[in-house]
């Protein structure tokens, strides 16, 4: 088995040359295979000498020991080893972003970053929704390129600036924002793409609206209108009640 102490020394040694290490990019919810670098030796039985370590936020965690996933970990049910002792992670989450190291006859280190789309309401804009696409990545890698994340629609057209139904390219730190109308959100699928330094797509994630949650975009103005009417009726009722008590 590859000793943890030796592994941590190697991590510290290689942190200064993180740009030379392999990097895997994944969309949230997908499945990733992280190679161990070498197949188990003939003297090793079914990865019994394999260990995997995970580093995030400066903390190191053993996720595989003696060829077995550590069961007490929250992500254990999503992890397994393939016959080559590569680490398989299913239903990728942002918490999985970090540095992974496989210890076997030698060592193999891989960075993994996760791309995810989240949805937020737009203050004072009941007919708009903001989609945020963020790249969750190890802190060792430094800042993102501001042009590394872009939005495309279902036809593959890149969304720039403000157009009918959307407003794109509001950039943040490792994030890009897309404001869309609720009507456009129901009629179009939006994809967030991560580009490398040569503008090639390294990974992408598609946002598909929850039809149960947003069913019937036409119903939103009606529901919003009725909520205002009900609120006004309640306000008038409270005002009348207070006035009567004041008169008494």
TrEMBL record:
UniProt keyword Metal-binding, yes or no: no
Listed Gene3D superfamilies: Immunoglobulins
GO molecular function: MHC class II protein binding; protein tyrosine kinase binding
Keywords: Signal
Signal peptide (residue range): 1-19
PROSITE patterns: IG_LIKE (PS50835)
Biological process according to GO: interleukin-15-mediated signaling pathway; positive regulation of ERK1 and ERK2 cascade; T cell activation
Cellular component aspect of the GO annotation: external side of plasma membrane; membrane raft
Pfam families: V-set
Domain Ig-like: 3-102
SMART domains, A to Z: IG
Record-linked InterPro entries: Ig-like_dom, Ig-like_dom_sf, Ig-like_fold, Ig_sub, Ig_V-set
Keyword Signal in record: yes
Domain of life: Eukaryota
Stated name of the protein: Ig-like domain-containing protein
Organism encoding this protein: Takifugu bimaculatus
Organism lineage string: Eukaryota, Metazoa, Chordata, Craniata, Vertebrata
């Amino acid at each position: 088995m590859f000793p943890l102490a030796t592994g941590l020394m190697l991590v510290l040694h290689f942190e200064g040359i993180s740009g030379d290490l392999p990097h895997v990019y994944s969309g949230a919810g997908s499945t990733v295979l992280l190679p161990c670098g070498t197949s188990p030796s003939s003297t090793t039985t079914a990865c019994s000498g394999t260990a995997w370590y995970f580093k995030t936020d400066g903390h190191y965690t053993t996720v595989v020991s003696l060829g077995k996933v550590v069961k007490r970990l929250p992500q254990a049910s999503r992890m397994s080893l393939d016959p080559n002792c590569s680490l398989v992670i299913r239903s990728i989450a942002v918490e999985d972003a970090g540095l992974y190291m496989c210890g076997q006859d030698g060592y193999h280190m891989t960075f993994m970053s996760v791309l995810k789309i989240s949805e937020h309401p737009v203050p004072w804009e009941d007919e708009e929704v903001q989609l945020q696409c963020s790249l969750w990545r190890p802190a060792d890698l430094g800042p993102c390129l501001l042009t590394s994340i872009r939005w495309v629609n279902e036809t593959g057209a890149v969304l720039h600036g403000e157009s009918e139904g959307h407003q794109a390219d509001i950039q943040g730190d490792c994030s890009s924002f897309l404001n869309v109308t609720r009507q456009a959100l129901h009629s179009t699928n939006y994809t967030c793409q991560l580009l490398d330094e040569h503008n090639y797509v390294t990974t992408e994630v598609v946002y598909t609206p929850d039809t149960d949650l947003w069913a019937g975009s036409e119903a939103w103005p009606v529901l919003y209108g009725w909520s205002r009417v009900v609120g006004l009726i309640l306000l008038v009722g409270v005002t009348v009640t207070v006035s009567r008590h004041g008169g008494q």
